[in-house]
Amino acid sequence: MDNATSNDALVECMRTKLKEWRSYLMNEKFLQFRCVAHIINLVVFDGMKEVGLAVERVRDCVKWVKSSRAWIEKFKYNISFIEMDGRRFVSLDVPTWWNSTYLMLESAERFEVVFNFMHSSPNGASF
């Protein structure tokens, strides 16, 4: 649980209201509201420190591909050259969306062959 003071204020307000209503449906000792999504986010970001360098390398590759229209077109050309399904594309993660790093890694893995091809081809790019 985090220590957000606004959550504490909410709990106190709810406790007061429940006393006013003489609610017998909820026991006061169970009144505790915390932002579960925030807690999960903290856990995920802490865990990401373990694989941070690998994720940074993938992020740099995806940023590089998406850095200009020319690189996007070259990447799409190589997708079709390798005869892969090009209906989807690589995505870049967003720091405030805690599952976007997973989506970025998933999309980059799907196109790993294209990244390797571009890295090893004479007209490709270096990562």
Describe this structure in words.
- The chain is mainly α and about 130 residues long.
- It folds into 2 domains: about 1-35, no CATH class; about 35-125, no CATH class.
- About 60% of the residues lie in helices and about 0% in strands.
- It is built from 6 helices and no strands.
- It has helices spanning about 5-20, 35-50, 50-65, 70-80, 100-110, 110-120.
Question: What is this structure, in a nutshell?
Answer:
With 127 residues, this protein is an all-alpha fold. It has 6 helices and no strands.
Number of strand elements: 0
Mind telling me the C-alpha Rg?
Answer: 24 Å
| Fraction of residues in β-strands | under 5%
SSE order: HHHHHH
Number of helices: 6
User: What fraction, in percent, of the residue positions are helical?
Assistant: 55-70%
Structural class estimated from helices and strands:
mainly alpha
Protein name: Transposase
Organism: Linum tenue
Helices, strands, pairings?
Elements: H1 5-21, H2 36-48, H3 52-65, H4 69-81, H5 100-110, H6 112-120
Helix pairs in contact: 3-5
Organism: Linum tenue
Protein name: Transposase
InterPro entries: RNaseH-like_sf, ZnF_BED_domain_contain
